[in-house]
Amino acid sequence: MYGIIVISLVLVLLTWVILYPIVVYFLDVKGLRRYPTISFLAGVTNIPYMILSAGGSRSKRLAELHKRHPVLRIGPNALSFGDGRAIKDIYGHSTKCIKDDMYRLLAGSHSHLADVVDKKEHQRKRKILSSAYALKNLEGWEYKIVDKVSKLCGRFDRCCPVTGEGGGDGDIIDWRAWTNFFTMDAIADIGLNSSLGFLEQGDDMTISESLDGVTRLVSYRDCLHSQITAQSQLVWTYGWYKSLVRWSRRLPTRYRELFSRGDGYDGIVIHQVRKRLQQYQEGKRLEDFFQALMESKDGSPNYLPFGEIGAEISIMQRRRLKDLCLVLVNAGSISTAVAINNAMYMLLKHPGVLARLREEVDIVADDDEVSIPYDKVKNLPYLRACLDESMRILPPTPFNLPRKTPPEGCEILSQWVPGNTTVSMSSYVAHRDEKVFSDPEVFRPERWLGERGKELQPYFITFSAGARGCIGRNISYLEQTILIASTIHRYDLELVDPSMEQTSYEHLNMNPGPLPVKGDIKPVIVAELDIFDVIEEQEASLVPPVTMQTSNVLVKERRYFI
User: Fold this and answer.
1) CA distances (Å), 282 to each of 211, 285, 287, 311, in order?
2) Structural domain boundaries in the chain
3) CA nearest 422: which of 125, 176, 104?
4) Phi, psi of 446, rounded to the nearest 5 degrees
5) Is the pLDDT of residue 523 over 80?
6) What pLDDT digit, counting tens, does each position of 137-161 carry?
7) In the chain, how long is the greatest CA-to-CA distance?
8) Does the annotation flag 470 for ligand binding?
9) Which residues neighbour 307 within 8 Å (Cβ) at sequence distance 6 or greater?
10) N or C, which end of the chain is more exposed by having fewer CB within 10 Å?
């Protein structure tokens, strides 16, 4: 009898998993079969898109396919668009599309600004944080970025001799790792008034804390990218996602390891939030994003009823607060770090562009300035053009930001798309639309200058577009502008291997590999190298050099060159 029950359940499961999607595909109620697919199975299952995501080059493959097809079916109920004119229809201020169910699946116990689906709730949350993210207020926190730039340059100064000949004989610097330390330290300070200390200690080891207070030492980047890698591959199963996560955590698979390491990232945020919350409960009003998250300028609470200052906060409330703070430290460190990496990579690959940019910066900067004031460089047209062009050709977040059409359907590119259909456009694909960007694979900052540059802006979706555009774009530009201007003014850097092609793995963001550079301090720089007292004693604590393989170059590195 039990055997019959088991067999019946198996047959029902097979019917639901295999036969039902096939029946839906041939019935084609929505009329999606007319669109070409990324795979012959894509109309039946999301597995081809999951496999494409697991390969780490999803957007590149979509860009290749979109050269032939303006619209692609990437799943049973999902369309990808390759024509830049679709941006307005999908993401514009007047769009009727809402965020896709993917965001609900990735949300924690309490949705934050990045994953909230309801438009009115998003408007409420964005209004709460908009003043904190306004450029005028961000410039008031410039001193925090200046502090991190000075610490970073203090490290670089000890590796770059003062020769003036370029390509100095000092240590090789992993630009990717060190500038990631910079963004992680900066956003922790700006967001939670916290000091991670990565630039001082030379690595990203930090404390992760569980909700019940157990702590351990983890690698920030390893935890963060492990979590996102697992999510980016499994989330496209939609209804099966949460079950797959539970199974993956129990079965001896690669995903169990990824999710296990990813839990450490939640713990990092919990630890930082716990410390900041204690300061808040003690009545300290600090100028950071956390303060804006907790209460408005008149002191009234914004998100959660935490009660009187000093009251005990429940574990559930801590979990919700942690989820709210994730967007502050996650998006603020990943995308900007990738943008800074890509900008330097493209500049070093194009010496003529670098020379022109350095000339523009040197005109406004004093010889002895370590961190150039933002006010001096924020309006430099070629600097902004270089940043935008690097983010165009190598967007930090290239994946299709999915939206869902309204129940009644809507028009996209003058084509009717049925209701509750997932629609999206990759920034990597959009930025390669030849009808908008001539020679899209060519790094040409000049395209952003003058009136023509203004005409291109509606098709530049590195920070998304419309009402759901990235609220952190101002702080990203602030960090990029100060750091890139300061380093090219102070140093003559070059790639260790000029022929190197930097590799990147795409999950929800791009995750570039190491970027080994070398160089020297420009001879006109006369600042004293011993002014960085905060790292004066660090050399004594370094472990012996290790060797790593980067492209075809063996890199000898100290502990903080990783």
Assistant:
1) 20, 9, 15, 10
2) 1-102+401-428, 125-400+429-521
3) 104
4) -60, -20
5) no
6) 778 889 999 999 999 999 999 888 8
7) 88
8) yes
9) none
10) N
